[in-house]
Amino acid sequence: xxxxxxxxxxxxxxxxxxxxxxxxxxxxxxxxxxxxxxxxxxxxxxxxxxxxxxxxxxxxxxxxxxxxxxxxxxxxxxxxxxxxxxxxxxxxxxxxxxxxxxxxxxxxxxxxxxxxxxxxxxxxxxxxxxx
Length: 131
Description:
mainly alpha; 73% helix; globular
């Protein structure tokens, strides 16, 4: 249940940020900040120990959504947000005390998807389905 919630929040955080940047023309920092602020305001009154984790996951996923659309389109952002959610859920707890974990996780997730789409022999297939 927790993993599913983290994945859903990651998808939503990345996609809403990507949408705010590319459809509403907000700057990357403003889009990430606005999306995170609204999400935190909507969830802060919920009484669950999971809320702080979901808020952090949402915020980190907005870094994935900051991707330029010349590098990754909607579908690739979606897949990168899933990769981010998995990294966030399984690996970030192991990096306790290391700063920059959310940004590093977002970078790794975007890099994996970008490299898969650009450099594997089946580039045309991934380009068609992940664009």
